[in-house]
């Protein structure tokens, strides 16, 4: 199954308080005004929040799937090649993790009720 930017967009927009905008020549997605995902490279990849230590481990373990853009090297972001994802479940797990890293605590606590 080849995942696309439209697959990413459909799932992202199903998450609470998420909005799509356009910046830096690409679609970007925010939760409660906080950036958590972009669709660069003509929507063939996604950039997501990821703690730097985890990001570095992902890139070392699966360099065909994950990489770090030069301008994001000092930030907690990782790029993900959509065509390299195993399935929709992997895509949604990665997106959900990024969303949770950006979402305000109050929003996360609402989901726990």
Protein model, in words:
The structure is a single chain. The chain has 113 residues and is an alpha+beta fold. It has one domain: Alpha-Beta Complex (Aspartate Aminotransferase, domain 1), CATH 3.90.1150.30. The protein contains five helices and six strands. It has a six-stranded antiparallel beta sheet. Strand 2 (26-31) and strand 3 form a beta hairpin. The chain is globular. Pfam families: YjbR.
Can you tag this structure with a few keywords?
113 residues; alpha+beta; Aspartate Aminotransferase, domain 1; six-stranded antiparallel sheet; 5 helices; 6 strands; 40% helix; globular; DNA binding; DNA-binding; MmcQ/YjbR family DNA-binding protein
Structure, briefly:
This protein is of the alpha+beta class and 113 residues long. It has helices at 5-12, 40-43, 52-61, 88-102, 105-112, and strands at 18-23, 26-31, 34-38, 45-49, 66-67, 77-81.
Write the layout of secondary structure elements.
Layout: H1 5-12, E1 18-23, E2 26-31, E3 34-38, H2 40-43, E4 45-49, H3 52-61, E5 66-67, E6 77-81, H4 88-102, H5 105-112
Antiparallel strand pairs: 1-2, 2-3, 3-4, 4-6, 5-6
Helix pairs in contact: 1-4
CATH topology category name: Aspartate Aminotransferase, domain 1
The average pLDDT score comes to: 95
Roughly what percent helix?
A: 25-40%
Our estimate of the beta-strand percent is 25-35%
Which architecture does the CATH hierarchy give at level 2? Answer: Alpha-Beta Complex
Question: Under the CATH scheme, which class?
Answer: Alpha Beta
Helix segment count?
5
Using only C-alpha atoms, the radius of gyration works out to 13 Å
The strands making up the biggest β-sheet line up spatially as 1-2-3-4-6-5
Task: Please count the beta strands (DSSP E, at least 2 residues each).
Answer: 6
Taken from the alpha-carbon principal axes, the silhouette is: globular
**Sheet with the most strands, sense and barrel status:** 6 strands, antiparallel
Order of helices and strands: HEEEHEHEEHH
**N- and C-termini, Cα separation:** 34 Å
Class of secondary structure makeup = alpha+beta
Domain module count? 1
- Low-pLDDT parts are none
Pfam family, one: YjbR
InterPro entries: YjbR-like_sf, YjbR/MT2646/Rv2570-like
GO molecular function, one term: DNA binding
Keywords: DNA-binding
């Amino acid at each position: 199954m080849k995942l696309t930017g439209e697959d990413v967009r459909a799932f992202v927009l199903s998450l609470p308080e998420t909005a799509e905008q356009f910046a830096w020549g690409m679609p970007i997605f925010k939760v409660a005004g906080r950036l958590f995902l972009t669709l660069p490279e003509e929507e063939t990849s996604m950039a997501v929040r990821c703690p730097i230590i985890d990001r570095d481990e992902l890139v070392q373990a699966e360099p065909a799937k994950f990489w770090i853009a030069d301008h994001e090297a000092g930030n907690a972001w990782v790029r993900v090649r959509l065509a390299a994802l195993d399935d929709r479940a992997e895509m949604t797990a990665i997106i959900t993790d990024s969303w949770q890293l950006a979402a305000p605590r109050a929003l996360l606590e609402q989901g726990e009720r």
